[in-house]
Structures are given as structure tokens and as C-alpha cells.
């Protein structure tokens, strides 16, 4: 005789499935722009530092040397901010790090997005005398 085994559903009855991320409103955020010579990475966080959205020139579809261009940085900023503006972000602080070409283009794109910028700070690390240089060459 075959015993019938009832299936137990893993889903709760009437429960909500999926993330509730869209329900959270973010009125103020922090935009971190890291602009290197080869890529530009844009990360948008809330005030506590939790990442809300991010984008880079590489994920925006640029490959190779085109990732370091100002246009690629502008596209990365637009992609990152599109998600947070829909969630109700109105004000933002901007931290820019790095020596890359996308610094100014990223800042211009943030300014054009309609967000009210409370302050802009350059957080590029500067060495206080740096690493020890290599020993002198003997020929």
C-alpha cells in the first residue's frame, strides 16, 4: 500500500513575498563618488551608511579605456540616482574621492538631477610624506 505524503508549502498563507525596499522613503542621502583613472564608482547611501543603490561605468555598459571617460561617469551617476529619486530623495551630501577624469562630470550630473546638495567634500587621501622610497640604484 502506498502512503500519501502531503506537501508542505514553504510559502506562508497571505504573506508578502519579496523585498520591502521600495516602501522605505529616503528623504536625505549621501552620494560617494570614487573616480579613478580607469573607472568611476557611484554609491548612494542613507544617513546611517546603508547602501541604497550603486552604479559604475563598467556596469553602465562601458568597457576598456572608455570606462575612465567623463561621459561614462555621467552615465553611472544617472543610473545610480534614478533609483533613489523614485524613493523620494530630496537632499544629498556628496563625497568625491580620487584623481580621475569623471570627477567634474559626475558632480555636474548630480547637480542636474534636481537634488538639493547640502555640501560637497573632497575626501581624496593625501599622504603625509608617504611610503619610504626605494633604495638608491647602484650601477
UniProtKB/TrEMBL annotation:
<dbReference type="InterPro" id="IPR018102">
    <property type="entry name" value="Ribosomal_uS11_CS"/>
</dbReference>
<protein>
    <recommendedName>
        <fullName>Small ribosomal subunit protein uS11c</fullName>
    </recommendedName>
</protein>
<dbReference type="InterPro" id="IPR036967">
    <property type="entry name" value="Ribosomal_uS11_sf"/>
</dbReference>
<keyword id="KW-0689">Ribosomal protein</keyword>
<dbReference type="GO" id="GO:0006412">
    <property type="term" value="P:translation"/>
</dbReference>
<comment type="similarity">
    <text>Belongs to the universal ribosomal protein uS11 family.</text>
</comment>
<dbReference type="Pfam" id="PF00411">
    <property type="entry name" value="Ribosomal_S11"/>
</dbReference>
<keyword id="KW-0694">RNA-binding</keyword>
<dbReference type="GO" id="GO:0005840">
    <property type="term" value="C:ribosome"/>
</dbReference>
<dbReference type="GO" id="GO:1990904">
    <property type="term" value="C:ribonucleoprotein complex"/>
</dbReference>
<keyword id="KW-0934">Plastid</keyword>
<keyword id="KW-0699">rRNA-binding</keyword>
<dbReference type="InterPro" id="IPR001971">
    <property type="entry name" value="Ribosomal_uS11"/>
</dbReference>
<dbReference type="GO" id="GO:0009536">
    <property type="term" value="C:plastid"/>
</dbReference>
<dbReference type="InterPro" id="IPR019981">
    <property type="entry name" value="Ribosomal_uS11_bac-type"/>
</dbReference>
<keyword id="KW-0687">Ribonucleoprotein</keyword>
<dbReference type="GO" id="GO:0019843">
    <property type="term" value="F:rRNA binding"/>
</dbReference>
<dbReference type="GO" id="GO:0003735">
    <property type="term" value="F:structural constituent of ribosome"/>
</dbReference>
Amino acid at each position: 500500500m502506498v502512503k500519501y505524503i502531503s506537501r508542505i508549502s514553504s510559502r506562508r498563507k497571505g504573506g508578502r513575498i519579496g523585498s520591502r525596499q521600495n516602501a522605505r522613503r529616503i528623504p536625505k542621502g549621501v552620494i560617494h563618488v570614487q573616480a579613478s583613472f580607469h573607472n568611476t564608482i557611484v554609491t548612494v547611501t542613507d544617513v546611517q551608511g546603508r547602501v541604497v543603490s550603486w552604479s559604475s561605468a563598467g556596469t553602465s555598459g562601458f568597457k576598456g579605456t572608455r570606462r575612465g571617460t567623463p561621459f561614462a561617469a555621467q552615465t553611472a551617476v544617472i543610473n545610480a540616482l534614478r533609483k533613489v529619486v523614485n524613493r523620494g530623495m530630496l537632499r544629498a551630501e556628496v563625497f568625491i574621492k580620487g584623481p580621475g577624469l569623471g570627477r567634474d562630470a559626475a558632480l555636474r550630473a548630480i547637480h542636474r538631477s534636481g537634488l538639493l546638495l547640502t555640501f560637497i567634500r573632497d575626501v581624496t587621501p593625501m599622504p603625509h610624506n608617504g611610503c619610504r622610497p626605494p633604495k638608491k640604484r647602484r650601477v
